Amino acid sequence: MNTSSRNHLQPSRHAKVLTMPLQRYSLLHIGAVLVLALLATWAGTTSAAEEKMFSLFKVDQLEYRAVDGNDVVAWDAGGWVGSDYHKLAFKTEGEKVRSGHLEQAEFQLLYSRLVSKFWDLQLGVRYDFQPRPQRAYGVIGFQGLAPQWFEVDSSLFVSEEGDISARFDAEYDILLTQKLILQPSAEVNVAAQKVAELGVGSGINDVELGLRLRYEVVREFAPYIGVNWERKIGNTANLARAEGEDINVFSVLAGFSFWF
Amino acid sequence: MFKRHKLAVCMREFFMSRFIFVLLFFSSGFSAGAYAASYDLVVDRGVIRVGGEERPALTINGTVPGPLLRFREGEEVVIKVTNRLAEDTSLHWHGLLLPAAMDGVPGLSFPGIKPGESFTYKFRIRQSGTYWYHSHSGLQEPIGVYAPIVIDPADEDPVKYDREFTVMLSDWSNEQPEKILSNLKKKSDYYNYNKRTLGDLMRELGAAKSQAAKDAIIEDRQAWGQMRMDPTDIADVSGFTFLLNGKDPESNWTGVFQPGERVRLRFINAAAMSFFDVRIPGLKMTVVQSDGQNVQPVAVDEFRIAVAETYDVIVEPEAGKAYTIFAESMDRSGYARGTLAPREGMTAEIPPLRERPLLTMADMGSGHAGHDMEAMKKASSMPAMHQPVRTGKAPMQHGMHKLKGSSPMASMHQKMHGKAMMPGMMGQPMQPGTKPGVPMDHGSSMPGMKQGMPMSQGSVETAPYRTLVYQDLRSLVPYEKKPPEREIQLRLTGNMERYFWSINDKKYSEAEPIRLRHNERVRVKFVNETMMNHPMHLHGHWMEIDNGQGALGPRKHVVNVKPGETVYFDLTADALGKWAFHCHLFYHLATGMFREVIVE
User: Fold this and answer.
1) Tens-place pLDDT, residues B251-287
2) Residue B214 and residue B220: Cα distance in Å, rounded?
3) Which of A182, B89, B295, B550 has the greatest number of C-beta atoms within 10 Å?
4) In this predicted structure, what is the pLDDT of residue B452?
């Protein structure tokens, strides 16, 4: 089992993806059309002063993670441009090992529609530059503020290969003072099926727990320190073990967040 | 700069009483309407001096506030307004009854005034009292385009006074309005640095005397969390320097009086976002007018002035003594200050800021807050307390449904931060009724409050401390009030988290105009479903508020609707045309809490 998955993984990990599969083009096209349609809608509705467009660019996390022998720089950023109800949003996250190469990098482009007081429905595309093979996904998600002040971001992904996965992300701010804020966070990834070439098993893939203490020097800028613990689970853990990877990654981190 | 075609215009309050005298003298031989005066106003870029520095502002005739316009009831005024800005502008005559085309609201009354162009307003003055004027274009009003209007009555003024001053309160931010709005859109709690912290929770739990009290504290936190609302959200925007007649507290605007004079102070709240609690320690203030309309005199120690309201008070300062006019912002982030003194340069003590109020949910599980409401009713003299608050249940939509059914006003009321519920105190931030026995303006420690039992501080020798509430306002003369033919419900709504505001869940851009038949009698029911105050302003008409005073219910141009409150008013749709109807909180209006009213 271990051997076979290793054999299966090895070639694809080093395979050079020279051409995008057709489906990927389709997905990206759908995304582009969606975004253009959205912009056209805006153009028709921006006459009223209150429909003025605003924009946000936010780097939630830009941090150095000290991991036993394998330090990484990780980011998590996003933003939007749009009106109260309609926004064009993006999200990106990734990790780069200290030696230089990207380990993981994804980018999402979404149409974000306010569908209830606290929630946005998001539709769009995701593209993973790393790990290889690169993959495009369709995205449907809900982002917003859950009762008791939990910031929640949940997404369902369908890859160009038809693979289904999902991600659930939640954060909570504990105010120690008005500017010193402790933020526990949790992320869970699940997959409906095994995607061996990406090291994904079916079921719960991994759980990531973080605890960051930030100081908002101003609202727009906050350095922080924290810890992060990532645990691969089930089949995904098996695949990782077979790869010789740690299934438990604990890191001490420092970074900063900013927005404008 | 400011051409004066008539004596009735003066910029210096100091000379005002003399002008009035001259006016009265001249007017005695003429019928009302014999007066016709013209005025030139120029809206331009300029500066304002705040905190020792000059800041870019927009000005009317070079100053902030702009020049006082002094009209006389019955006169025809011609006001030429020239726009020297790079963008469109307008001036709206706040509270004045006039033809719709002269109301100065771009898009409704007229197209606005293009850069470099002029517009001439012509209308007859049909009322008297204290009003103001301001830009109704773009984001101009908060950065200086506002000024007072005083209209002398055609007949003898029922209010007797020897000297008068206009006291225009405003809030100045060094941040541009565009930036403030953008910050709110990106992070709606951007300006709230008074949130409840973990430490606050621990302290409250530590101070709780029983397990039930601890549970109540946790339940309170959970109830707020369920609604995703913040009890510390008293003001959407902070960081203001508060101005009195354009002067910051250090600059200390001073009104000089002669001993023995009855001094009329015409308070106008021209702030973009800030309510003020106004008092003059050492002086009773006799309220004689509200929103330009005479009311039966009521002596108070303090009154809250909502954004865009006006209140006229009479004070009788003693010889040889200076008094601080202290206008504390509702969120206690600062104050506007001026001085009444027998001579320039004298000052009086500036009281410390009181504690910031906190919104509460009165009828939470433990019910202790409900007891408070009972205590309030029993303990204090607030006969009309529930009069304008007729909703049978709390109107909050989210998470509040479990809480409905008890005292309507109790759905949300404010208490002082970190204190136990104090019946007498509740009147202070929220004005539910006249509250006795809470002299809060002496010393920093707020005597009688430490025990949380203001009612029990009988040892302090003092007259009952009285804060004005709407129920105290009784028109000087009764109005003929025909019964309304129909009722319109306007729910005041919004999305605090994403920072946009609405009426009946629709923003201005999404809503159809409200259509009224000419001369129709309409009852309007405001239901505030949000946690913010909304000072609602109707152009071109009086709002006759139902404050339990029947035919003496006062006529207002701004009706403040407190969090969770229901307020009724009647109007006669006697002014044809398109009118604006909106919340006067600047960033509420700018994000959608606005309706077009068409009288046809």
Assistant:
1) 999 999 999 999 999 999 999 999 999 999 999 999 9
2) 10
3) B89
4) 31
The Cα–Cα gap between B418 and B32 comes to 56
State mean pLDDT over B16-26.
40
Q: Which residue of B has its CA nearest to A144?
A: B497
Distance from CA of A173 to the nearest CA of B (A): 10
Nearest to B589 by CA among B554, B553, B539: B539
Could A174 and B198 be called an inter-chain contact, meaning their C-beta atoms sit closer than 8 Å? Answer: yes
Mean pLDDT is lowest, of A254-258, B302-306, B441-445, for: B441-445
CA distance B318 to chain A (A): 45
More confident site: B80 or A103: B80
**B-chain residues within 8 Å CB-CB of A45?**
509
Determine, for residues A45 and B509 on separate chains, whether the beta-carbon distance falls below 8 Å. yes
Residues of chain B neighbouring A148 (CB-CB closer than 8 A): 222, 225-226
CB contact under 8 A, A50 and B509: yes
Give B 168-207 residues with CB within 8 A of chain A: 181-183, 185-187, 190, 193-199
Query: How far, in Å, CA of B564 to CA of B360, rounded?
Result: 11
- Pick the residue from chain A with its C-alpha nearest to B590: A50
User: Do A149 and B590 lie within an 8 Å CB cutoff?
Assistant: no
Q: What is the pLDDT of residue B421?
A: 36
pLDDT tens for A42-82 read 554 444 556 789 999 999 999 999 988 789 999 999 999 99
A187 neighbors A207 (Cβ within 8 angstroms): yes
Is residue B297 classed exposed, middle or buried when 0-12, 13-18 and 19+ CB atoms within 10 A define those classes?
middle
Chain A residue at shortest CA distance from B591: A50
Q: Give the distance from residue B439's alpha carbon to the nearest chain A alpha carbon, in angstroms.
A: 31
Cβ distance A84 to B186 less than 8 Å, yes or no, reads no
What stretches of B165-278 show up as alpha helix (H) in DSSP? Answer: 177-186, 198-207, 211-227
Tokens 């369902």 identify what position?
A156
Distance of alpha carbon B145 from alpha carbon B83, whole angstroms: 12
pLDDT at B406: 35
Q: Phi-psi category of A98—alpha, beta or left, where left has phi over 0 and alpha has psi -120 to 50?
A: alpha
Confidence of residue A23 (pLDDT cuts 50, 70, 90): low
Instruction: For B523-575, give the secondary structure using H, E and C.
Output: EEEEEECCCCCEEEEECCCCEEECCCCHHHCCEECEEEECCCCEEEEEEECCC
Which residue in chain B is spatially nearest to A50 when comparing CA positions? B591
Give this complex's ipTM.
0.85
Tell if the CB–CB gap between B509 and A176 is shorter than 8 Å.
no
End-to-end CA distance of chain A: 50
pLDDT in tens, B37-81: 899 999 999 999 999 999 999 999 999 999 999 999 999 999 999
CA atoms within 13 A on the CB side of B161: 25
**Strand order in B69-72's β-sheet?**
B69-72, B146-152, B129-134, B92-94
pLDDT in tens, B502-524: 999 999 999 999 999 999 999 99
Which chain B residues contact residue A259 at CB under 8 A?
186
Average confidence (pLDDT) over B90-108: 97
C-alpha A129/C-alpha A20 separation (Å) is: 12
Whole-angstrom distance, CA of residue B414 vs CA of residue B425: 9
Residues facing residue B523 across a β-bridge? B487, B570
SS3 B215: helix
> What one-character-per-residue DSSP string does B61-96 give?
TTBSS-PPEEEETT-EEEEEEEE-SSS-B--EEET-
CB-CB under 8 Å, B508 with A145: no
Mean pLDDT of the region B583-598: 96
Measured CA to CA, the distance from residue A142 to residue A136 in angstroms comes to 19
